[in-house]
Amino acid sequence: MVVPSCENTVMEKFAHPDFMRGIVESQRGVTPDGTCVNGASQYINMFGYLAFDGKSYDGACSFFGAAEGKAPPLPNAVGWTICLVLGLLFALLTSFMVWVSNRGLQAEDQTGNNSEVFSTAGRTISAGLTAADVVSKWTWAATLLQSSNVAFAYGVSGPFWYAAGATIQVILFAVLAIEIKRKCPAIHTMLEVVHARWGTAGHLTFLFFGLMTNLIVTAMLILGGASVINALTGMNTYAANFMIPVPVMFYTAFGGLKGTYYASFTHTFVIYLALLIFMWKIYAGPSDLGSTDRVYDNLLCAAERAPVDGNKYGQFLTMNSKGGLMFGIINIVGNFGTVFVDQSYWQGAIACKPSATWKGYLLGGMAWFAIPFSMATALGLAGRALDLPLTVDEAGSGLVPPAVALHLMGRGGAFLVAFQLFLAVTSTANSEQLAVASLFSYDVFKRYISPNASGTTIIFVSRAAICGWAIFSGIIATILFEMGIGLGWVYQAMGNFIGCAVAPIVFALLWKDCSAMGAIAGAWTGLVAAIIAWCSTAATQNDGTVSVDTLGQLEPALAGNLASLLVSPFVCVAISLLSPQNYDWKDLGEKTGAYMIESDKAARLEAAGAEGSDALDRAYRNTLIGGAVMTFVLIIAWPLLALPADPFSRSYFGWWVAIAFIWGHVAFIITVLYPLYEMIYPDKDEVPEPVKEVPMLAHVVTPIPILPEPVVERELVAIVFPDDDDEESDDDMGVA
Predict the structure, then answer these.
(1) CA–centroid distance for 472 within its chain
(2) How far apart are CA 293 and CA 291, in angstroms?
């Protein structure tokens, strides 16, 4: 078999193949930053592509040219407009939607007046809106930026492993979501389950890990968003660190959890719309690429400039990638923590109708797959196919998507990717802000400061926590930026810190014998093991040097992530088996139900029907099977089936892109059109039947059912009336 390459597959298609052969040969191993001297490099764009303004890329030391004093593609005012003006406009839109939803409710059931509605959205959210919310809160800056970075670095394996490695967690969380409804439908936070089972020590332990998860996720959001807005508009990074989270806090504080759902829906619509625009522009629209064949040919030649270390034949068009696989493992391990230990996912499950939990999370997980897979298969691979002068630092900071958008669509493309990113960041930020607010109000304030707090007080504390966290997160992002820690570094390292809490948190709802000592010891032992493995591997591979740079390498991050996720359950199970708790699940429902402040009829299971326990039992079994099957397909079957195509043929790559296209459009239907359908045609049990007025005598208090007259033989009936002075009773009336 002849292995496809630039020489034997592409070269003869050029008008002057010998000249092209010379260009490719001269550019082997040449990078813009690696050959830069006095503001000029030896880089030449192999395909002769020009920038959107007609200028040549040849000789560039980087794409955005910050080190060379090159002006950003968009004016500084655009950055402020996106962060402040558009941020406030979306805040007003979301607040208006919350206000409209309140109009049909009794005053005591409105978002700002009822703490249960503020924190749980009344526990009546539908499946479609839940799917949109899952996509929204799982779409970080890293989803749009880091996924394209790994595509730029490893080729086709990067988008797949990013998507598959972070989809299975949401799918498997659907099992936990059903268990919440079956065992403790009245909870507000995951820590209420922990406290009911393992007391104060367990509660404080997992409060630490829960807040750390929120801090890591929020920091990644702001770091990624601020770096792109700075690169595209020149907006001050420190200002962007605060202008991204602050507008979000207004509608989150006003609308509570219901506000985050409405924001998720509107933001997800724009995110998918931009994704589809980029896909069509790269693979089907008028552009320097415009077809899968052109992208395929250019990727073969791109491997001549920068062959991928660890990829078979050095090609971008193969799933046989050591770096891609290692990233996939880190992605799988790290993202278990950011789903199962993140209060925002528990809050989403709490807010659903019982029948919507498993549907919403399964649909949301599969729809989210399209964002990193389809987006990075388009923008990430296009960065290589266009042979743009992107440096390693620029790619690591998440600047591949804006670079490609700027090249293909000019300043309009730069604005679109910046706006898409801003909405992705803010849609997750509002969920994180409310998650932290719930932890502070229910698990700090009510638990340890004011056990008898009223609903009004809880709402006030939640709003104060939302505002405080918005400002605090900006401070943390600024500190990390000053330390030289970027989006990619935090993304790879997150599993080291929070992966150790995954198993105990899951056991809290799924294993009755997990003891408090086992859960606590497992979490802390896993954290210590992760730090040791992380630092020791970095030192071993770098002659004893442990620094931000060495800790950011793949191998140390992989060692730490694995130690965190695997040591914890081992210790937890071993200690728990020595002294099993044998917990009674009824006790969990009673304790968490007693912790409610205001009444909520949706905080209990119906006796029967779609919202009943029998229906959830069936859903639990189906979700276990469905989750296991989809996990097997995404993590094992799909990559194994793709290995024989090594490297991809032209037709196989076309099929691969077609899957990305179809998945992107189906995801749009699930998260945008399906919620609209549910709003227009709600379930029958959501629409109250009109009350029929029955004419009654004035003294009748309750309606009397009218029964059909029985068929009996007619006979003379004498009615004996009691005397006025006799006591009325049924015995005084007889039939002669």
Answers:
(1) 22
(2) 5
Average of per-residue pLDDT values in the chain: 85
Question: For residues 333 and 329, what is the distance between their CA atoms, to the nearest angstrom?
Answer: 6
**CA 118 to CA 432: how far, in whole Å?**
15
Partners of 37 in the β-ladder: 40
Residue 310 in contact with residue 155, Cβ under 8 Å?
Answer: no
The residue assigned the tokens 């993202």 is 335
User: b/e per residue, 343-355, with b = 16+ CB within 10 A?
Assistant: bbbbbbbbbbbbb
User: Other C-beta atoms within 10 Å of 464: how many?
Assistant: 15
Check residue 657 and give left, alpha or beta (phi > 0: left; psi -120 to 50: alpha): alpha
CA 243 to CA 229: how far, in whole Å? 11
Q: How far does CA 457 lie from the centroid of its chain? A: 30
> What would the two tokens of residue 576 be?
């728990």
Residue 659 region, left (φ>0) first, then alpha (ψ -120 to 50), else beta? alpha
Answer for the pair 353, 123: CB distance below 8 angstroms, yes or no: yes
What is the distance between the alpha carbons of residues 246 and 470, in angstroms, rounded to a whole number?
Answer: 6
* Percentage helix, strand, coil for the chain under 3-state DSSP, each rounded to 5: 70, 0, 30
Q: Which of 254, 246, 217, 247 is nearest to 474 (CA)?
A: 246
Token duo for residue 146: 């880091």
Structural tokens at position 223: 């770091």
Q: Decide: pTM greater than 0.70.
A: yes
Give me the amino acid identity at 167: T
What is the rounded distance in angstroms from the CA atom of residue 625 to the CA atom of residue 432?
A: 30
Contacts of 621 (CB under 8 A, 6+ apart): none
At 521-535, the pLDDT tens digits run 999 999 999 999 999
Whether 675 and 352 have beta carbons less than 8 Å apart is answered as no
> Tell me, what's the pLDDT at 100?
78
Distance CA 672, CA 246 (A): 26
Nearest residue to 156 via CA among 666, 664, 665, 649: 649
Cβ atoms of residues 433 and 247 within 8 Å: no
